Known about the structure:
Layout: H1 20-31, H2 40-50, E1 58-60, E2 70-73, E3 79-83, E4 86-89
Antiparallel strand pairs: 1-2, 2-3, 3-4
The structure holds zinc ion (ZN).
Amino acid sequence: MKFWPRRRPPAAPEPERANPTRIAVLEHDLLGIPPEPGSAAALVVALRRTGTCVEHEPVETTTFGEARLTGLCTRCGAAMVEEEGEWRVATA
Ligand SMILES: [Zn+2]
C-alpha cells in the first residue's frame, strides 16, 4: 500500500552547450586563430573591426615600449590608438 506519491528526483540540468561562434571568437581573441571564412564568428570579428558602436569607449592598454597610446573599446572590443589627442580605431 502506497500512501504518498513518490517524489520524482529533480530533472538533471541541461548540460551547458558551448556556443561554437563564441568559441571561435574567443579563439581569435586569445589565441589569434582566424575564424573560418564565411562563418558567424568571422562576421563578428569583421564587424568588430569596423567598430559597431556609435561612440567608442576606449580604455588605455598601453604597455611599455609602445610609441603611442593604445587602447581597446570597452563596448565593441576594437583596437584603438590615440592620435593627436583623439582616439581612433586602429587600422591594420
Ligand atoms: Zn567601440
